[in-house]
Design brief:
The chain is of the alpha+beta class. The protein is built from 2 helices and 19 strands. The strands form 5 sheets. A 5-stranded mixed sheet has the order 2-9-8-4-5, with no helix packed on it.
Length: about 220
């Protein structure tokens, strides 16, 4: 009977100690829109190690490749493209050698003169989110008009607009325009709910199990 309990305990510890491999794709500089000719670095980051993860993409060419296969420098879990082309627009994600994949992000490369600087990843509900409208050559504090799903929100004199305490109703496609310079492409903003930290629950459960065993409960 005691042996059975020990085996069950070992099985539980093994189960609680294991976690599903999951990496997050980070982008530097942290934005979803880029001018043609800009550089970008994408990295797969995991809590323990990024080994085994590769940055992959599906671009407007309709090809699913490892980032850096055609142009750029891909080293392990990091990919750097020193000069972006419009054709580099597309979906990027991290892929584990055993088949797992991270959430994907959309990068847009424009040949125009205006971009919208917005969060690459989903933002947390209740956070403040600042959107900025930039031109390729002029100062970044020019008056800019901001739009959501095709409708004008408002015009900001300094080219920055803050969404306060965002909720799911703030989700949508955003773009901006600057007089005499043009308008940016559209980028999607997603809002996510509170993160359930299941790892904390699992560790606490294991500790309670071990404590009850030691006390003879």
């Amino acid at each position: 009977m005691e042996g059975t309990s020990v085996h069950r305990l070992l099985a539980l510890i093994s189960l609680l100690s294991c976690s599903t491999n999951q990496a997050a794709l980070t982008v530097s500089p942290s934005r979803s829109q880029f001018f043609e000719g800009d550089s970008v670095s994408l990295s797969c980051e995991e809590d323990n190690s990024s080994a085994g993860w590769t940055v992959r993409r599906n671009t407007t060419r309709g090809t699913r490749t490892q980032c850096g296969d055609v142009r750029g420098d891909s080293a392990g879990s990091t990919c750097t493209i020193s000069s972006l082309f419009i054709e580099d627009s597309g979906v990027y994600w991290c892929e584990w050698r055993e088949g797992a994949a991270s959430s994907s992000i959309q990068l847009t490369v424009t040949g125009g003169s205006v971009i919208l600087q917005s969060p690459v990843l989903p933002v947390m509900e209740g956070d403040d989110v600042t959107l900025s409208c930039h031109t390729k050559t002029a100062p970044s504090n020019l008056p800019a008009a901001f739009y959501k799903d095709g409708s004008l929100i408002r015009t900001e004199p300094a080219g920055h607009m803050t969404l306060h305490h965002v909720t799911s109703s703030d989700e949508g496609l955003y773009r901006c325009s600057i007089s005499a310079h043009g308008e940016s492409p559209s980028s999607s903003i997603s809002v996510s709910g509170p993160i359930v930290r299941s790892g904390v629950f699992l560790v606490s459960s294991r500790e309670r199990w071990l404590s009850s065993l030691e006390s003879g409960a």
